[in-house]
Amino acid sequence: MASSKRALITGVSEGGMGDALAVELMDRYGYMMPILDSDLQKIKLNFDVNVFGMIAVTQAFFPMLRISRGILVNQCSIAGLMASYQPFINSYQASKSAAVKFSGALRVELRPFGVKVVTLITGAVDTPLWQNTEGARVGIPANSRYLPIKDRVEAMMTGQSNPAGLTPAREWAKGVVADLLKTNPPIHIRRGYLSITMWIVNWLMPWWMMDWLFTQSSGTGTLQKLL
Ligand SMILES: NC(=O)c1ccc[n+]([C@@H]2O[C@H](COP(=O)([O-])OP(=O)(O)OC[C@H]3O[C@@H](n4cnc5c(N)ncnc54)[C@H](OP(=O)(O)O)[C@@H]3O)[C@@H](O)[C@H]2O)c1
C-alpha cells in the first residue's frame, strides 16, 4: 500500500509564512498543461476537486438538504460549455464540463425530495485562480513537442491570452446571492465577465469558426506549418 505523509500547519492567515508552507506542500488543483505533456495523476486531481469532490459533498449533505428543503449550488464555469475548448487548459475544462452535466442531471434527481439544484456558469472573476495553477508556476517541460510555440502555449496555460477583463469577486458574489434569494432562483446563474457572451457564442458560433479561432490563438496553426 502506498504510504502518504501528513503535516499539520497552524497559523495559516493569508499572506503569512504558514500559508506559504501550506500552498507549497499541498497538491493544488488547477492543472493547466498540454495533454501530451500532462501527468495523469495531476489531471485526476482536477477531476477529484471539481467533480468527485462535488459528488462526495452532495452525498454527505443530502440528508440535511432534504430536511431543510434547501438549494444545492454547484460552482461550475463557462469553461464547461460546449464551445469552451481552449487548447492547453484541456483537463480543467473537461472537469468543468463533467461538473455541468453532473449538476444538470442532479437537478432532476433531487427534485422529488424538494431539493433545488442551481448551476453557476461563472465567467471570469478576479481571484488568484490563474496564479495558483501549476501551468503558471512551471510552464511546459523542456522536451515538450510544443517548444516552437512555447510563448503562445504558456500564455494560454496562464490565462494571459484570455480577453482582458475580470469581474471583482464581491460584485460576482452580490449578483449570485441576489439570484439565489429570489422566490424561484434560476437553474443556471450566469455571473462574471463573459458569462453571457459565452452563452451566446455557445449557441450561435459555428464549430469551424471556433476551431479556426482556437488554432490561431493557441499557435497550433503556426506549429503545423513548422512541422
Ligand atoms: N476565477 C474565475 O475566473 C473562475 C471562473 C469560473 C469558475 N471558477 C471556479 O470557482 C471556484 C473557485 O475558484 P477561485 O477563482 O476562487 O480560485 P482560487 O482562489 O484559486 O480558489 C480555488 C479553491 O480550490 C481549493 N483547492 C485547491 N486545491 C485543492 C485541493 N487539492 N483540494 C481541495 N481544494 C482545493 C482552494 O482551497 P484553499 O484556499 O484552501 O487552498 C481554493 O479554495 C473553482 O471551482 C473555479 O474553477 C473560477
Protein topology:
Blueprint: H1 17-25, H2 40-68, E1 71-77, H3 90-110, E2 116-122, E3 125-126, H4 129-132, H5 134-138, H6 150-157, E4 167-168, H7 169-180, E5 188-189, H8 195-204, H9 207-218, H10 220-226
Parallel strand pairs: 1-2, 2-5, 3-4
The protein binds NADP nicotinamide-adenine-dinucleotide phosphate.
NADP nicotinamide-adenine-dinucleotide phosphate (NAP) binds near residues 28, 29, 45 and 75.
CATH topology: Rossmann fold
**Which ions, cofactors or small ligands are bound in this entry?**
NADP nicotinamide-adenine-dinucleotide phosphate
- Give the C-alpha Rg: 19 Å
Number of spatially distinct domains: 1
Beta-strand fraction estimate: 5-15%
Q: Tell me the overall shape.
A: globular
Using the 3D structure, state the CATH architecture: 3-Layer(aba) Sandwich
Give the overall average pLDDT.
92
Helical coverage, percent range: 40-55%
Strand order of the largest sheet: 1-2-5
Order of helices and strands: HHEHEEHHHEHEHHH
How is the biggest beta sheet arranged? 3 strands, parallel
- In the predicted model, the low-confidence regions spanning at least 5 consecutive residues are none
